[in-house]
Write the structure tokens for this entry.
Amino acid sequence: MSKRFYLTTAIDYVNGQPHIGHAYEKIVTDVLARAQRSRGREVFLLTGNDEHGQKVQQAAQAEGKSPQTYCDDLAVVWKSFVGKLGLSHDDYVRTTEARHWQVVQAILSQLHAAGHFYKAAYRGLYSTKEETFLTEKDRRADGTFDPAWGEVIELSEDNYYFRLAAHQGWLIEYIEAHPEFIYPDYRRNEVLGFLQNHVLEDLCISRPVARLNWGIPLPFDANFVTYVWFDALSNYVTIPAAHQDPLVLKALNLAGSPATPALELWPADIEVVGKDILKFHAVYWPIMLKVMGLPLPRQLVVHGWWQKEGQKMSKSTGNVVDPIAVIDSWGVDAFRYYLIRELEVGPDGNWTDVGFQARYNAELANGLGNLVNRSLSMLHRYRQGIIPKRSDELAADTARTTLAAQACLDQNELQAALVRIWTLVNRANQYVDQTAPFKLAKDPAQAPRLDEVLYNLAEACRILAVLLWPFLPGTAARIYAQLGLDTVPDRWASAAWGGLEPGRIIGPVVPLFPRRDLK
Ligand code: MSP
């Protein structure tokens, strides 16, 4: 058994509709996962829903449903959403599942027995909306709180706390010694700045049942449920435990189940998260793992936030992008392409409808789509769809693009990888214009030259399918099918020049991205 390349997304709050922020994070993770699969690695991608907490309890109440029924109904919506995105996930966690619950309780028991928690009374200002205590420092200049906190009340209650003081030093050293741990580096600097300039306060890991009962009960005190973030972060190891990951089972002293095949998953190779939840993943989560006796994830990939038309997305103003509507109208690959091509992983992005449509027409319809369409149509027209003998005029261009795209993918530079791939799209389109096969076809003496040109174009299309598979899996598969290939272009190694066999009959040609009038 060898360790799988393990990737995770944040798990989305189940209350609220899936939007492009959620879609983006999943697509980024999916591209990274598929890139690894394409390189021949065994991969495991985990995504899911965060279902406990006050907001869910309140939302369920407002709909007159039990929290479990409310979550079950919404899980259907979310699961169909990830299907729509073409996510190649291997498991889907719901934090209300017993397999998650039981392991969270095991973690809590173990940490409690080892003395990491203590009980204390706390009196303070509390944001009901964000389920967090605030301090005086959170007040604005006029003494009020940002409306984003919702209603802020005074609350006094007993709770369990996680001792963090002893962990600040090693965490700083770890982040300094592992520059690859947080990507991009400005997010790493942000975390280091925070850790170097603040004394870490102990983390409250419980909520009294009297105030909130929709959560995982503390195994050592039935008057409390687990703080939703402690519960949610644990999913990254509870699911490996459910898959009998030996490292996790051993650290948590859990008996394995011989009935389930064991997978080696932990440590995660990449955890993809948004910038807003960086502190949870770069501070609390590493400390939780350390006290569990587990290694830290190899890398946190931290992405920025999307706006629409330069404004924060908000349902109340109607300034939203409905990912499902875009996918239904334009296709999932057009959606995946825009999100990855428009925004580098790291900074904030801005969705514009005009920008989306412009990229669709220029880069997908006129760029890639036109290349494949005219190359294969000419092959049908001039050679009855039969691949001519090999030629290697575009071999150096494709090799250069393959290497460059691979280097970008290895560095999480997904946008740059697409830019590189499009240099090949453009080069091949330029090759059509330069070699003018439609003119060559008129002169029987040029038949050998026409053979060369048509082979080069078809083979460039094939290699493009291989390079595009992590990004646009459906389109890549369609290019292969149009080339008459009955395999999936999911092996990076097959981007080597010359894979297309002479004599093969290609399939019917169908436009990949029909041109659309701009609205
Ligand atoms: N449930 C927590 C995560 C727990 S992970 C152990 C949560 N859920 S969320 O639904 O609010 O957000 C899920 C992910 O979506 C986060 O990584 C967040 O950054 C991302 N996004 C939410 N809105 C976004 C945008 N507008 N743009 C890009 N990503 C955004 O936080």
Notes: Residues 353-383 form the longest helix (31 residues).
